[in-house]
Every structure is written in structure tokens, then in C-alpha cells.
UniProtKB/TrEMBL annotation:
Top-level taxon of origin: Bacteria
Keyword Oxidoreductase: yes
Protein name: SDR family NAD(P)-dependent oxidoreductase
Taxonomic source organism: Marinobacter iranensis
Record keywords, A-Z: Oxidoreductase
Transmembrane residue ranges: none
InterPro entries reported for this sequence: NAD(P)-bd_dom_sf, Sc_DH/Rdtase_CS, SDR_fam
Family affiliation: Belongs to the short-chain dehydrogenases/reductases (SDR) family.
Pfam families per UniProt: adh_short
Amino acid sequence: MSVRLESTSNIWITGASSGIGEAVARALVEQGHNLIVTGRRQEALDNLKALAPDRITPARADTTGKEELQGIAGSLEAHGDLNMAILNAGTCEYLDIADYDSDVISNNITTNVVGTARCLDIALPALRRTVAKGQPATLVIVSSSAWWFPFGRAEGYGASKAALTYFAHSLRADLAQEGIDVVVVSPGFVKTPLTDRNDFPMPFLVSAEDAAGRIVKGLRKGSNEIAFPKRFTWMLKALGALPQGLIDRIAASMSRQSRKEQETNG
Ligand SMILES: NC(=O)c1ccc[n+]([C@@H]2O[C@H](COP(=O)([O-])OP(=O)(O)OC[C@H]3O[C@@H](n4cnc5c(N)ncnc54)[C@H](OP(=O)(O)O)[C@@H]3O)[C@@H](O)[C@H]2O)c1
């Protein structure tokens, strides 16, 4: 039986200024939890604070900056014992193979992998202090199901989320002995400012509120793996279990089709 989120918790959430992070923050504050919210846009964080001024602390920072993060470490401490850190800040940049640019790979990796890893510089000591007082502590890492299949144009994004998931699973192994749970969230397509930029069909797209509901429900249940929507993630798992030669043929055909559509539309 899980004790996560059973009583009022102090939760740090990154990428809270829009999309999934904002929706999760709204859901958690509605349930009475206390939040520290991080993003780069102060105004969006202030808007969140207005929902519950005495229970939400904005802590603006670029999560890729070690020093900026150290600058908000005090906010985590001042807020009380940290019960949960939800590391959700992320980006998605697609590659145009005809105009290959390694910056696309670097940008995805820097924000999604290095940024998340840097957040642990301040989250881990705070979670350890909580465990030392006999309270539960949970680290939640928002990855993606996108890397379960080699989609064209997703070289940078998929590689970053594959690396991030490995990072999380490896952390889970190391932190188990300390009693810190590590949860991996693997969403399918969610309607947010990030996916509003996409120019291709997004099967089984869910709203940010729907995604937040599934994440919070999974956390309350004590799940360590939260993947949704099921029809999409099962389809990806089934595709990913095919022999590599078949995966390659399907992936190449999808890539050709999407390039044709792009050429027709653009
Ligand atoms: N939407 C989907 O379909 C989908 C699917 C699978 C996984 N995900 C993952 O879910 C997470 C949230 O994505 P979303 O769709 O909600 O996108 P979003 O609406 O664009 O939100 C991204 C959030 O991350 C923050 N962020 C980005 N770079 C940052 C940085 N360097 N420092 C601090 N904050 C930063 C943004 O805040 P500022 O702009 O204020 O900095 C924003 O709050 C990402 O990790 C994404 O990969 C999304």
C-alpha cells in the first residue's frame, strides 16, 4: 500500500510554467499539496502562485544551469521537508535529415538529460534529509514513450529520452537501498505548447489535464512506471518487440511517408 501523496506533501515540480507540468501542478495544488514551481518564465510561475499564494513558491531557474539551480536550493529547504521532486522540464526538437545539424541533438540532450541530472544536485540532498526523518521521498522523472520505436526526425529527442530513462532506472537501483523511490513517466502524445508545433498526425492525443490526472493517479497508487495512453504504449511495445529487420522496414516506410506529406504540405 502506497503512502505517496496520502498526506499533505511538499513537492518540487520543474517545467511547471506550461503543458503537462502546469496541469500536474494545478491537480496537486487542488488536492492540498504545497508546491515549489520551476521554469524560466517568471510570469507563468506567478500566475500559478495566484492559485494558492500560501502553498505555492515560484523558484525561477534554467534547469541546465548548475549555478542557477544552486540559487533556488534554499527555496526547497525553506518550504519544509521535500517529499517529492517531479523533474518534468523538457524540450523536443526534430531533425531535418536533409539539413543535418548536430545542435538539434545537443539541445535535446542538454535540456532533457543534463538539465534533469543537474536538478538532482539540489533534489537529492533534500530528499535524503526527508528520508533521514523517517518520511517517504520520491523522485519522478518525466521521460517519453517516443524512444520505444525509432521514429524518423526524432534522433535527438528519442536519444535524449532513452538516455533519461536509463538514467532513471539506474538511479532506481542505486537509491533503493536509501528508500528513495524513482518513478518513470512515459507519456504518449499530449496536447501542449510543445506538441502544438508538430506538423504530423498525433495518434491517441490526450489533453494536458487528462495526462496530469493519469500521472497523479499513478503516483497515488504507488506505481513506479506510469505510461499512457495504454492503446498507444501497447502498440509501441508490440512494434518494438518485432525483429530489428522488420522494425527498420516499418520505420523507413513511415519516414518516407512523412517526408512526402511534408513536401506536399510545404
Ligand atoms: N507533450 C507530449 O506529447 C509529451 C510526450 C511525452 C513526454 N513529454 C515530456 O513532458 C515534459 C513536458 O512537456 P510539455 O509537453 O508539457 O511541454 P511544454 O508545454 O513545452 O513545457 C515544457 C516545460 O519545460 C520547461 N523548460 C524547458 N526547458 C527548460 C529549461 N532549460 N529550464 C527550465 N525549464 C525549462 C518550460 O518552462 P519555460 O519555458 O518557462 O522555461 C515548460 O514549463 C517534457 O519533458 C516532454 O519531453 C511530452
